[in-house]
Each structure stands twice: as C-alpha cells, then as structure tokens.
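The record is passed on directly below:
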Amino acid sequence: MNKILEAAENYAKAVLGYEGSGHDWWHIYRVNKLACSIAREEGANLFICSLAALLHDIADEKLNGSEEEGLQKVERWLKENDVPAHVSTEVLNIISTMSYKGGNTGLMSSLEGKVVQDADRLDAIGAIGIARTFVYSGHIGQLIYDPDIMVRSSMTKEEYRNGTSTAVNHFYEKLLKLKSRMNTEYGKKLAARRHEEMEHFLGVFFEEWEGRR
C-alpha cells in the first residue's frame, strides 16, 4: 500500500508540479494531509482516502480535454500500478463525483468519498482558498471584481464553468456555500474557522473598494 501511495505521489508531482491555476502539486499535498486527518477522526479507510486525494486532480476536466479523458488517465494509472479492483472502483467513483460543478452534484455515496470531498473543499476556503481564487481567476482571465457583473444564484455545470464572473463573485457563487455543505463532523469544525477568514477578507475588501479604509 505504501508503495502505491508513493507512486501516486510521484505521479501527481510529475503531472501537476508546474500547473498554474491553483490545482498544482501543493494543492494535492494539502488535500492529502487534510483527507488523512479527517479519515483518522471519522474512522474512514485511510488508504482509499489518501489515494483518491493524491489522484483527484489528475482527472479534473479543467486540466484535460474532457472529464472522461481525465478519468481514463486515472484508470490507466490504477491498472498499471496493480491497484486492487475494489480500491480502483472506489477511487474512480470518488473522483468522478466529488467536484462542485456549480452545486449540481448529489451526496457522496461512501464515507471515504465524503472525507476526500471535504478535504478538497477545505483547501478552497480560508486563507489558502482566498489565494487560490485569485490565482485561478487570473489564470482564466477574470477580473478581480466588477460591480456591474452580478453574482449568479443558480447555474448549470456549463454556466458555472464558462459563464462570465469575477474572483470576488466566486466567493458568493461557491466558496461561502461550502461550510454548510461539508459532510463530516471534523470537516465542519475545520470549515467554520476558514469561513470566518473569508468573511473578514470580504468585509475589508469592500471597505477598501469604496475608499473607506
């Protein structure tokens, strides 16, 4: 098991080491650490949680031609590294269902899926989440903020991925919603502090935007 996890870590580093949208190796590193911490607290299968965390963004459709192409890449790696079939099935199921997609996904079907989804969402909020939001927005050419661009309240997956928004709008369209969508008790505990950090940041941001600070 340790050899498989080591190989997965090396694979993620090789593929995502210089990725520039905030889905780089260090995002994987943090999500894996969080997933392992939550798994221990919640009694989940540590090996499955860690393996899914290490491989989850290899399949991200933002970094591949399509979601299917990304999942096939992960599936090939699992087969080439002799990962047991039942583990591969669970890892692929987690990776294929954990993404936010504009809030259009259902509940994760396993405890391990809930753990990895919580870990990924925790890295999208708080101080790290703030930094990643602006990195990603710059990567895709979005503005920091424009008061004339309204926050979108309901979106299809396609609208979420391709519609016009801003970095600050993203907090309201997704990030501030994540605290209430955490799956595990430990995930909820960690999310509460990170949520407060974002609320504080946005309060200061709008004060400075209006020249009141």
